[in-house]
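Re: that chain you flagged

S.,

Sorry for the slow reply, it's been a week of failed gels. I finally had a moment to sit down with the sequence you sent. For the record, here it is as I used it:
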Amino acid sequence: QVQLVESGGGLVQPGGSLRLSCEASGFTLQYYAMGWFRQAPGKEREAVSCISSSSDSTYYADSVKGRFVASRDNARETIYLQINNLTPEDTAIYYCATVYRDIHQCTFGPPGYWGQGTQVTVAS
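Prediction finished late last night. Pasting the structure tokens below so you have them in one place:
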């Protein structure tokens, strides 16, 4: 059974940091580019960051560039998103998913797996 399980979300004060994790099972993570997406209340889901299968290339949305860092450990079947200097505008459910190999498009793609999401709330 294929699963992507996110963790690491929580309530954090503005300026704080979190490290999100996404653990894969049921498929071999190392073959796939992966992405992080988020959806805030009342807004559409948006791409935040994508990382190539070998970690040699990354993409970041302008809104998070310089604050978020994507990484992965294929041996652990896990990708990560370090999120720093958080603002209330970063409050959202964060999802990981498989994406197309052209990670600069940072678009959901084959084989088409989504996680269930982890909530990040930034408030004082």
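What I noticed first: The first strand starts at residue 3 and ends at 7.

Talk soon,
D.
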